[in-house]
Amino acid sequence: MNISEAIRTRRSIGKVTQEDIPVSQIEQILEAGTWAPNHRMTEPWRFFVLRGEGRKVLGEALADVALASAADPASPEAAAAAESARTKPMRAPVVITVAVTPKEHEKVIELEEYGAVFAAIQNMLLEAHGLGLGAIWRTGAPTYHSKMNEHFGLGSKDKVLGFIYLGAPVEGQQLQGKRKSFEELTVWIDEEGSVAGK
After folding, report:
1. In terms of pTM, does the model score above 0.85?
2. 145 SS3 class
3. Staple partner for 149: which of 53, 92, 96, 154, CB 3.0–4.6 Å?
4. What whole-number distance in Å separates Cα of residue 115 and Cα of residue 80?
5. 3-state DSSP: the chain helix, strand, coil percent, rounded to 5?
6. CA 160 – CA 146 distance, rounded (Å)
């Protein structure tokens, strides 16, 4: 699969089997992430690979966030929400938590550190696709909660940016993609001060 094909055929695949993923393939995906562009070679990404019982780390983090976010943490509804959140990481045999650790330096722009890690995540998704694996980048409000940092031992300036759920795809999923034409979203500027078509 060439890079052009990989970009156009990759899809978010949420339904995967519990079949084990070889460590060598996980490592290949992690290494792909490290080749993302990053200003000043700060390499601001951090990866946490959760397998087997290790997935419970994320489950407990999600449960704690659910309780902390509830209007009444002691209510039966809050307990049910926490229990539901606790089981989410079990949907895939491997979950890779991806975080950013911005470097403190006068010439390092924090937003660019985030951009580098987002690029790393895209690299990882494309690598997984090239290996024939199913992957989905999951986020949402709990991802950015301070309790998530606590569970992963991250500092106050660090931030979890998402979870890559990874596994062998369940067959029979409809994987049709659709995008607007780039022409609808592009302005060509060929001369100073003028906006032109092609």
Report:
1. yes
2. coil
3. 154
4. 36
5. 45, 20, 35
6. 9
